[in-house]
Amino acid sequence: MELRPPAAADQVLAELLDRLVALDYNFVTPTPATHQRYLQRNRRRARSLRDIFGWSLPFSPADIDADLLALLERGAFIEPQGHWLRPLIRVSSLGGALFVHSAFPTLERDAVFFGPDTYRFAAFIMRELPASDGHILDIGAGSGAGGISAVRAGKAARATLLDINARALWMAGHNARAANIAAETTMADLTALPDQTYDAVVMNPPYMVDGEHRQYRDGGEDRGLDLAVSWTLAATHLVKPGGQILVYCGSPVVEGEVLLAARLMGELGPEWRMEASEIDPDIFGEELDREEYRDVERIAALGIRIEGG
Ligand SMILES: C[S@@+](CC[C@H](N)C(=O)[O-])C[C@H]1O[C@@H](n2cnc3c(N)ncnc32)[C@H](O)[C@@H]1O
């Protein structure tokens, strides 16, 4: 079922996040493969809030506080699954803050993404961005994890969270409020550039070949590279002189050549300095069985820093 927030959902989500923060709830989201393995080993109903909001396990109405159940019903955050109820949202922790996103499995085209890439992306921002009281733009913000983490860590005073997914921006707005940071959400797809520049621009674009064309995953043509290249080129128009562009992204490697880095080197003008490093040499190895990746040796997770202009 698709999660369509009813009018009451705003207040309910705010209350739910505040409640989980107060309870010191925490959950680290693993890869979908690890999540699936966990569910196969644990074919049972939920016994804890982590089971419900982390592992997306179904639960019996008798298993949770009546007022929490009423809250979830009011927000339409659950649906029946046989005799049990299935959560439609997940809540994950990152750097001491909580982020609401879509429940497992994330099959819908507009599912709200959060995963190991999000943790690597946020860690890259923490490492590379200096402290600042500037304004950061997070392109393809999803749950808002990148921009929100940057502001929480003093890398910017405020964040603009941009995405084409209305549900993601709705959740990102709530995540920013729960983290108590200054942020605004912008629904856009970068075909028209925002009429503004930023002190830093960060992104974790979709980069896979995805037959289902899920917004969080499908990177477009050229083995999933096109979106990352066009967002990076757009970012060169959106960053202030002296500011930083940070791109966290997966890249196919063919005969030793890291394709995303090679394409960006060819397409960025000489006024830009680019430094690319491998954060992880081998991610999503199981995808290499796909025909589209037949000449790809591996997919590397890259951290790319661009400055100049
Ligand atoms: C891999 S997810 C990353 C989400 C988040 N930044 C994170 O690290 O968890 C990519 C995000 O890009 C968004 N997206 C896809 N195509 C887009 C487009 N044309 N314009 C803006 N955002 C887009 C998706 O909706 C999704 O939220």
Describe the structure.
With 309 residues, this protein is α/β, with parallel strands linked by helices. It has ten helices and twelve strands. A hairpin with a 2-residue loop joins strand 3 and strand 4. The chain binds S-adenosylmethionine.
Please give a quick description of this structure.
This is Methylase of polypeptide chain release factors. The protein has 309 residues and is α/β, with parallel strands linked by helices. The chain has ten helices and twelve strands.
What are the SSEs and their pairings?
Layout: H1 9-22, H2 32-41, H3 49-53, H4 66-74, E1 78-81, E2 84-87, E3 89-94, E4 97-102, H5 116-128, E5 135-139, H6 145-152, E6 158-163, H7 166-178, E7 182-187, E8 198-203, H8 221-224, H9 226-238, E9 239-254, E10 257-258, H10 259-267, E11 272-280, E12 298-308
Parallel strand pairs: 5-6, 5-8, 6-7, 8-9
Antiparallel strand pairs: 1-2, 3-4, 9-10, 9-12, 11-12
Helix pairs in contact: 1-4, 1-7, 5-6, 9-10
This protein binds S-adenosylmethionine.
